[in-house]
Amino acid sequence: MNLRSAAIFTALLGFACAGPGPVLYPNAHFDQVGKKAADVDVEECRQLADAAGAHRDPGTASDMAKRTAGGAAVGAVSGAVGGAIVGSAGSGSAIGAASGATAALLGSLFAPKPVGQAHMTFVNRCLAERGYESIGWE
User: Fold this and answer.
1) Environment class of residue 57 by beta-carbon count within 10 Å: exposed (0-12), middle (13-18) or buried (19+)?
2) Residues sharing a CB contact under 8 Å with residue 129, sequence separation 6 or more, in sequence order
3) Can you tell me the mean pLDDT for 61-88?
4) What is the pTM of this model?
5) Given CA atoms 88, 90, 94, 97 in this order, what sign does their dihedral have?
6) Domain range annotation of the chain
7) 93-106 burial: b if 16+ Cβ within 10 Å, else e
8) Could you report the per-residue pLDDT of 8-27, keeping only the tens digit for each?
9) Which of 5, 7, 117, 122 has the greatest number of C-beta atoms within 10 Å?
C-alpha cells in the first residue's frame, strides 16, 4: 500500500469514527474568538468531560460483541431457511451465520457513534462557562 492510499484510508476511518459534536451559535464571543479557537475550546471541554467520567461513547466492546452474535444468529437462521429450500440447510446456516456476523460487526464499526447524555451536558456547560452557546449536537 502506498503512502497516499494509507493517508486516504486513515482519513476515511477518522470520519467513520467521528461522533457528533456541539453546534455553536455565532454569538458575540464566538465571533470574537473565531472558529479555530472555538474548536480548541470544544476539544478541551470534551477532554475535561472524559476526565470527569462523562465519556463520549457510552457503548462498550461487549455491546459490539452482542450485536455481532445477534447478527450471526439471525444469519444462521435465515441461511438455514434458504439452504433448506435448495436442500442444504447446514451449509446455508454456516454461510448465513458468517455473513450475518460480518454485517453486524461492520455495521457497529462504521455506524455513527452515540454520545452519552452526561458527556453532552458536561460539554455544553463547559462551553457556556467560556461564553459559547451550544444549540444542539450533530
Assistant:
1) middle
2) none
3) 63
4) 0.54
5) positive
6) 1-58+116-138, 59-113
7) bbbbbebbbeebbe
8) 444 444 444 457 999 999 99
9) 122
